[in-house]
Amino acid sequence: MRKQIAAANWKMNLSYQEAETLLDEILEADIRLEFHQMAIFAVPFPYLIMSRSEVEDEMNYEVAAQNCHHKKSGAYTGEVSVDMLHSIGVNYCIVGHSERREYNAETNAMLADKVNLCLEKAITPIFCCGEPLEIREAGTQNNFVAQQLKESLFHLSAVEIKNIIIAYEPIWAIGTGKTASTAQAQEIHHYLRSVIAGKYGADIANEIPILYGGSVKAGNAKELFASPDVDGGLVGGASLIADDFIEIIKALK
Ligand code: 13P
After folding, report:
1. What are residue 63's DSSP bridge partners?
2. What's the CA gap between 2 and 36, in Å, rounded?
3. Residue 67's pLDDT is what?
4. Which domains does the chain have, with CATH numbers?
5. Pocket flag, ligand 1, residue 236 (CB < 6 Å)
6. Which residue's alpha carbon is nearest to atom 2 within ligand 1?
7. What is the pLDDT of residue 166?
8. Catalytic residue at 97?
9. Averaged over 175-187, what is the pLDDT?
10. How far does the centroid of ligand 1 lie from the alpha carbon of residue 74, in Å?
11. Ligand 1 centroid – CA 11 distance (Å)
12. What pLDDT is recorded for position 249?
């Protein structure tokens, strides 16, 4: 079975102490992850080393950075490179979250560079795509997200693309309490998989996890994740509450 993943994106929330407590509460919960299931915590940079040591002895729990810089190194004050993440044992990194695309003017071309740098260091990118409300209202969301994949991922070889996790996050559903319906999520996930299959073949497309993000909650996770092409979620707000995120992990197929 394809990997099924509950990924927490804490964004710019929690103190160090709160972060430690939240991780402890989740890791102490009685969750038995199966071989094909994973939980990933995308934490702020200053908490990566602590978080990594917390999950170290836990099967199928991992830590992710929320971003990396698109250049390898150099005079970029305040930025964090992929090599730095690699040097502290980080194996996953969110790339192209819509908040970064919007507030930090990240382009599809820059994201392609980030993906390349991550793969060079065997860091798995959690590549985010998703359309704004006006695109959804115009009904052109399929073309919009396909273009994001093409411009940031489709230069990769078949071997490389297998190391990508995709997160579909419609911008109108992020932090709004407005979730895509199960049917809407399944439809666009299926479409994204068909676009990948068109370029790389069905076998490879069937191996790539596609997570849904946007107001995933304890109460809707099971229904969303039950869809055949929805392989888990990338969760913001609800991942900051231990009991909620525990329920979301348990909702994985
Ligand atoms: P919410 O779950 O708070 O809507 O955030 C989703 C998200 O942006 C995860 O990356």
Report:
1. 41
2. 7
3. 98
4. 4-250 (3.20.20.70)
5. yes
6. 236
7. 98
8. yes
9. 90
10. 31
11. 9
12. 98
Pocket flag, ligand 1, residue 51 (CB < 6 Å): no
Q: Among 235, 239, 247, 248, name the best residue to mutate to test ligand 1's pocket (greatest count of ligand atoms within 8 A of Cβ).
A: 235
Q: What gap in Å lies between CA 198 and CA 142, rounded to an integer? A: 14
Catalytic annotation, pick one of 69, 70, 86, 97: 97
Residue ranges in the chain assigned as alpha helix (H): 16-28, 48-55, 82-87, 98-103, 108-120, 133-138, 141-153, 158-161, 182-200, 202-205, 221-225, 242-250
Mark whether 169 is an active-site residue: yes
pLDDT of residue 178 exceeding 90, the answer is no
In the predicted model, what is the mean pLDDT of residues 117-126? 98
pLDDT digits (tens, 9 = 90+) for 42-101: 999 999 999 999 999 999 999 999 999 999 999 999 999 999 999 999 999 999 999 999
Q: Distance (Å, rounded) from C-alpha 117 to C-alpha 103?
A: 22
Among 186, 217, 173, 242, CA closest to 22: 242
Helix (H, G, I), strand (E, B) or coil at 2: coil
Instruction: Give the H or E element holding residue 127.
Output: strand 124-129
- How many residues are there in the chain? 253
